[in-house]
Structures are given as C-alpha cells and as structure tokens.
Fold:
Amino acid sequence: MKNTFVVSCPIDTYSGYGARSRDFVKALIELDEYDVQILPQRWGKCSEGFIKGNKEWDFLTKHILPQLTSKPDYWCQITVPNEFSPVGKYNIGLTAGMETTIVDGSWIEGCNRMDLILTSSNHSKGVFETSQFIKDNNEDHVIKLEKPIKVLIEGVNLDTFKPIKELKNKDLYNQINEIPEKFAYLTVGHWMQGELGEDRKNIGLTIKAFYELFKNRKNAPALILKSCIVNGSILDRAEILRRIKIIKDQIPEAKTLPKIYLLHGSFTDPEMNELYNHPKIKAMISLTKGEGFGRPLLEFSAINKPIITTKWSGHTDFLKEGNVGYVEGTLENVHPTAVVPNMILPESQWFKPKLSDVGYLLNDVFGDYKKWSKKAKSQGFHSRKMFSFGTMKSQIKEIFEENLAKLPKKLELNIPTIKMPNKPKSNLKKV
Structure:
C-alpha cells in the first residue's frame, strides 16, 4: 500500500494560495506515488466554491477528507508559516513566502516546527534564510531558520493559459468589447490595505500614474482593473469605486481623463485566460511593491503580451530582463497603514517604483507596440519552457526524492484463501 500524504490547504478558494494548492495536489496525484488526501481550509475572507461544477478540477472531490482521523505518513500545510503545525510522521510547510525584506519571528518558529520548507521564489527563500530575531531580549536566544528550505516554482498550466484566437465566453468578450478604446492596459490584484501608494499591489499609485500620464490626451488608452478587496460583495465593489473617485478628484489641470474600468468578482482560470487574450487588452501593468511569486504575471506572460512591472522580488525569477518593461526603484520602509501584525512588520522594507520609469514605459508600449510584442513572445517562450506545470511536477519529484524521509511502506493485507476440497460424488443410485 502507498504511504498516505495529507495536504491541508485552501484548495476550494478563489485565491493565489488556492491556485497553488490545486496545482500541488494535482501534481502529487499524477506522480502516483502516494495515497493523496485533502483536508480543505479557508483562506481569510476569500470566496469558496472553485471546485464544484468545474470540470477541470472536479476529480479532486474524491480525495477530500471530511476530517483527519489518523496520523498521516506525510503531512503538508499550504499556508502562512506561523500556522504550521506538525501532524504527520514527516511534515512539510509550503508557503509563497514574504513580499518584504524580513519575516516575522513567528514565521521562523513555524518553519522550525516542520521537517522541510517549500517556497515559491529565490527572493522568499533568501528572506527566510536571512531573517533572525532575539527572543525575550536574550542575546543567547536567537531565532533563525534551522530546517532545510527549497524553491518549488509555481508552474503555469499550459492547457489553460495560452494564446487563443476565438473567445468562447461571449458575455466577457462583449463586456470588454463595448469599451470605445482599442488599447487597454490590464492590472490584476487585490486592493489591499494602505494609504494611496502604500498598498502592496500599489493599485492606488497605478491609477494615479495612469491618470497623470494620459490626462488631456486624445485617443488615450484605457486601464482595466481586475480587483477586489476581500470578496466579491456589492459593498466591496462600492468601496473600490469610492477609492478610484478620490484619486480621480485629486488630478490637477485635468480637462479630460483616460477611462478606467473595473472588473469585479471571482473568475475561473479559463475565464482569466479569455480575459488575458481579449484583443483590446494589449499589455499588463503591475507596480507591485513585492511578490512571493507573482502568479498573474506568469499567467499573462504565457499569452505573449507585453508586461510592465517592478524590478524586485519573486517575479524576477521568471521575467527576464530585456523581455519585459522593468521599472527601476529603491527599497523603502513599509508604511504604517500597510503593516499587518505577525506578517508585514513595521521595520521591513519593500519596493518603491521610480515614477519616471513608469511614465516612459507606459508611453513606449503604447507607442511602439510591435517592438514590445516581439519581446513578449520571447518571454512567453521562456515562461512556457521553464515555468510550466510539468516543470513544477518534475521539481516536486526531485525534491521529495532528495529530502523526504523514507518511511516504510504499509504492507498490504493479503489473506490467503483456503481451497475447499472437492465434494465426493454421491454414490446414491436411483433404484
């Protein structure tokens, strides 16, 4: 019998961690070396229900456990490290890591409770390895990473994320096709906490920079914002529209402003691919302050369309310089309004983009699209070759063969069958 491998994760959620969970579990199942079982968890206030009715992922339902009833051979938690808890004979913590320069001490302690740590990028790995803390003001008690840590990429599903000519989702196609602009930038991400220009995804600054650059210009491009705050509610949508209006009202000397359109709610992977492929969406912009990996950037890169983004953190693993429009910048302290207890520390730093670079690149991609399309095709080839789901699956196999403790396999219970003797033929004769 195969060793049991239980994965505790937010597998049914519309979130980056949910997508990571589904890919990891799918790869484990396809490797066919373990009895894979899933213990679903929530992920903050993110919407659930991704799997139900989804033909691509419906196979996962037969692996779901209602509850954990015995100690598994291998246990993997996909979450933030301060929640890591060893449950199995061998314990793995899988996390996207951190978007800043240091992680909280509770994260290091959580990692040290496990046997192996997997994270998504070299940036995250480096942050875990360099973060150290003195506990209880005792200089002899230093908290640092003591367990092995490996990079496991987040591979893009090439069966889903790929260039397509015909869009099947007519509602989505028509919705975007109705905008008058022929050229639209796309930005994707949750609008997180923080004052204008201080939220991690930097959506507020993206909107302001877009307004400032293209104000009072004829035939300006549009910006499509695929975003929410915590969920897909009406109140959530209203709050985003309120924030956009505040920024809009602060633009000086604006007789006309470029249009910004909000796409709100949860999308499936095929819907996101159709969004990426819409002919009016020409490029992606992400002024992110930091990424553990940057999954939407990888997905979009597989479409062969130009990308403008910041030159720091996890996504620099797969976005090659020369293939994308990299925004230079400097590190700055996290603003107090963006601090998250036990996660984003006040003393940590992340990226501040250089606004002159943002303006130059937005203009250049808009004005010389053929040049940037050529660069995007080179990036697409690289992403599909080096950062695919298949590559990730191979990495899992390699990492596990090198690092997982070799637990004894369970013996199958073979009960021998006793062969019954042949019954003697009857000697009775009819008289």
